[in-house]
Automatic annotation (TrEMBL):
The keyword Hydrolase does not apply. GO terms for molecular function: ATP binding; ATP hydrolysis activity; transmembrane transporter activity. InterPro entries: AAA+_ATPase, ABC_heterocyst_DevA, ABC_transporter-like_ATP-bd, ABC_transporter-like_CS, ABC_transpr_LolD-like, MacB-like_ATP-bd, P-loop_NTPase. GO terms for cellular component: plasma membrane. It comes from the Bacteria. Residues 5-233 form the ABC transporter domain. It holds the Pfam family ABC_tran. The keyword Nucleotide-binding applies. Keywords: ATP-binding, Nucleotide-binding, Transport. This is Putative ABC transport system ATP-binding protein. It comes from Phaeovulum vinaykumarii.
């Protein structure tokens, strides 16, 4: 099987006419299966734009993004939806359903895909919440959880369906040190155990130590690509 993410000659623009602005310039990148890659760079350097292009959340305008063997440039909307279902997204603003418990919020990610019977879905949701340190909170409503706990529920929801690729935009911003490191260690474990490939935007220097690879964007260009320590802290 080839690399799960293969990008070549990727450029992207926002706006039209006078306001047209290029956000990405001719990006080439391959990401290995099971790896944890960190994307860093100054504000406005194009990190989120790149992540959302990989995640099939915007149309590829120029160049090629091959995700899990499928070319995204020109991909029809129904196929985009199917592709997104194979991914796990951890973005800012957790978008939890306020009327549903933590367990139900996580279960929804399985229910949508019709996987397993309800009891098995509950067990899967509880297991993932437990891995994120929320075993005691599975029945809580979001209103009764802290910001960091809500973020961890959102992370559990993104991971419970065993996605092949996880895309995360500053997932640790709302987390304390232990929760942040725990989350990144979990992504690493999933990478080793299941081949889950993770790409994470972060400004968090503590995370860098755990990454397999560190990419730096500046003004829409990939200017740095170095191995992380990948250390087990
Ligand atoms: N929807 C949009 N419309 C117009 N311009 C946009 C849009 N989204 C992003 N841009 C511009 O594209 C460039 C890259 O933005 P992007 O959000 O990808 O950067 P970033 O590195 O993720 O920044 P941050 O760290 O602040 O989130 C910036 O100049 C930004 O202003």
């Amino acid at each position: 099987m080839g690399d799960p993410i293969v990008i070549s000659g990727l450029s992207h623009w926002f706006g039209a006419g006078e306001a047209r602005k290029q956000a990405l310039f001719d990006i080439d990148l391959r990401v290995a299966r099971g790896s944890l890659t960190v994307l860093m760079g100054p504000s406005g350097s194009g990190k989120t734009t790149l992540l959302t292009l990989i995640g099939c959340l915007r149309d590829v305008q120029a160049g090629s993004v091959r995700l899990l063997g499928t070319e995204l440039h020109g991909l029809a909307p129904p196929a985009q939806v199917r592709m997104r279902r194979r991914l796990g997204f951890i973005f800012q603003g957790h978008n939890l359903h306020e009327a549903l418990s933590a367990r139900q919020n996580v279960r929804m990610a399985l229910g949508v895909q019709g996987r397993g019977d309800p009891r098995a879905q509950d067990r899967a949701a509880e297991h993932m919440l437990g891995l994120l340190g929320l075993a005691e909170r599975v029945a809580y409503l979001p209103a009764n959880l802290s910001g960091g706990q809500k973020q961890r529920v959102a992370i559990a929801r993104a991971l419970v369906a065993n996605p092949e690729v996880v895309l995360a935009d500053e997932p640790t911003a709302a987390l304390d040190l232990d929760s942040g490191l725990n989350m990144v260690r979990l992504l690493r474990r999933l990478g080793r155990a299941r081949g889950t490939t993770s790409v994470m935007v972060t400004h968090d220097p503590r995370i860098l130590d755990l990454a397999d690879r560190i990419l730096t964007l500046e003004d829409g260009r990939l200017v740095g690509d170095r191995p992380g320590k990948g250390a087990e802290i």
